[in-house]
Amino acid sequence: MSDSEFRGLRRGADYQFGPGAGRALFPSVDTVEVTHTSSGRPRQVIADDGRLVTYGTDGRYTLGLTGGRRLQAHFEAPRHRVVVGDESEPFVREGRNAFAKFVQQADPGLRPGDEALVVHEDGDLLAVGRAELPGHGMADFETGMAVKVRRGADGD
C-alpha cells in the first residue's frame, strides 16, 4: 500500500469517526493489509487480529469487531456507543439487532446511518452495526430497532 493511500484511509476515518480515529484504527502502514476491488478501490482493511473496516462504495467505513474494539479503546464513553443491559446482552452478542426498548444510554451525537458500537452496561463490546434511530432519543423510544447489528462478538 502506498503512503498516499494509507494517509487517505486515515483521513477518511478521521472524517467519519472524529479526530484521532485514523491513527487508532490504522496505527502504521505495516500493521494493516488492504484488499482491493478489480478496479483498484480499497475494499477491506485487515490487521493481524481481524477485520478493521470495509470500505463501502459510498466512501464510508463499516466497522468490523476489531475496528470497533480499537475505536472503543480510543474514544471516551459515550462516543459512538449504544449501551444495553443484561436482558438483551446474549441476543446482541450472537448478532441479533438491538432494540430501542432495551437501550439504557446512547451517544447523543449518533445519527441514523452512523456506525455504532453496542456495549454492555459493564463496558464489554457486544456488537457493531448501523444506528437506525438518532442517539439523542434512542433510550426514549419504546419500540423499533435502535441498531441494525452487522456482527456480534460471539461471531468473532
Rounded to the nearest angstrom, the distance between the terminal CA atoms is 26 Å
Return the structural class.
alpha+beta
Mean pLDDT score, rounded? 94
Radius of gyration from CA coordinates: 15 Å
Detail the poorly predicted runs: none
Main sheet specs: 6 strands, mixed
Number of strands: 10
General shape: elongated
Strand content: 25-35%
Domain PUA: 80-154
Protein name: Pseudouridine synthase
Organism: Haloarcula rubra
GO molecular function, one term: RNA binding
Descriptive key words:
156 residues, alpha+beta, 6-stranded mixed sheet, 10 strands, elongated, RNA binding, TGT_C2_sf
In words, what does this structure look like?
By secondary structure, the protein is an alpha+beta fold. 22% of the residues lie in helices and 33% in strands. The chain contains four helices and ten strands, in the order H-H-E-E-E-E-H-E-H-E-E-E-E-E. A six-stranded mixed beta sheet has the order 6-10-9-8-5-7. Strands 1-2-3-4 form a four-stranded antiparallel beta sheet. The longest helix is centred in the first third of the chain and has 15 residues, at 3-17. The radius of gyration is 15 Å and the shape is elongated. The relative contact order is 0.15. The model has no long low-confidence stretch (mean pLDDT 94). GO terms for molecular function: RNA binding.
